[in-house]
Amino acid sequence: MTDTSSRATPLTDGERAELDRLRAEVAALRERPPRRRIRWRSLAAGVILTLGCLLMPVALLTVWVHNQVANTDRFVETTSPIIREPSVQTAITDRVTATVFEYVNVPELTSDALGVLSAQGVPPAVTDRLQGLAGPLESSLRGFVHDRVAGIVSGPRVAELWDRSLRTASEQMNAVLSGQSEAVVVSDGEVRLDLAPFITEAKNQLVQSGFGVASRIPDVHPTIAITDATTLERAKNGYSLLDKAATWLPWVALALIALGVYVARHHRRALIGAGLGVSLGMLVIAAALLITRGVLVGAVPPRATVAAGVSYDLIVRFLRDGLRLVFAIGLVVALGAFLAGPSATAVGVRRGAVKAIGWLRRGGAKAGLRTGPVGPWVHAHLTALRFGLLGVAVLVFVSLSSPSGLTVLVIALVLVFALGVLQFLDQPRPADDGPPSADGGQRPAATV
Length: 448
Description:
It is built from 20 helices and 3 strands. A 3-stranded antiparallel sheet has the order 1-2-3. Helices cover 73% and strands 3% of the residues. By secondary structure, the chain is mostly helical. A hairpin with a 2-residue loop joins strand 1 and strand 2. It has a domain at 344-433. This is Integral membrane protein. Keywords: Membrane, Transmembrane, Transmembrane helix.
């Protein structure tokens, strides 16, 4: 029987034309470049991570402002060392001494004394010679007063007075920022501090030391410039918002970073980018602090430049500590995520570490070091132990009251060392990977 099913039915002219048209369309589609699809997931992750990294420096600033204003103990701890700085003590001593001699006219006192002597019958030759001593007498008195004031300013009583004033100032900080304070005034574009308490203390000490004319000093209120007025105005405008945001903005920034890492298609790459982004933000704030320092120091008179610079450094030192801390955390997170990745560099580093640990293990085996059942147990629970060490490191960091950037680096190094010890102890059971022995049995793997 002839199989007619295998015979090909010839195509008609219309069918052949349609087939040629379809082939041409397929060929055109193959030659057309593929349309690039927008990966909305990656785009969303990038936007969220960028927003989180931008909010992190702002969150750090809000926390610092909140601590300085709302926490009296922190405020006193920040500003208390200012009065103990030699440059600040010198500036205050010069200003107080000048104020004293504004109200104690030595030449006038000398003329009055000579007039009294003349009236008492002292010969003119004697009074004329005494008149010639008026200049040296004034210089000696000025030096005496300056030394006494310097001793007062550098003494413990003024330091205690300064600390009490700071506590009072901290309680009145809201009044300062709202423009209702009388202790801090704005004059000629400068924020000035009232020195009346120092003048009163210096007057009392001078009178007790025998310089009775100091009692003539009235109740005056000289001031000293402490910063530029524009700084106070900006603080007034941003204080309310920053103080309210201090409690929730850091958590919002952390949540955005965590969400961005979760949404990203490549979590490890996103984590690396987040760590580097946060560190970069800290560098930007640090640069802004340096620029602000230069502007503020340049706005004060030249004789107060050193004191202004020292005061600024003391005020922002806790902020700088926070910048170093967050900067170190960002770098450690980024570096850890990178070394855990599949890149050639990361794989090479891990392989080199494993080889070094293997060399140490073999050396220990030759020296007779044995772990017994510890090695197989570590091998069976290796992943859990690694996460446990990471959790312990996080708990140690969280439990510290005032961690620093150096603390973060030390914790990271200790964690790396602990992971290395764990890798050193990792030893599978002999039956798992030991090579076969000559009699067909399983050769025990070397243990250390």
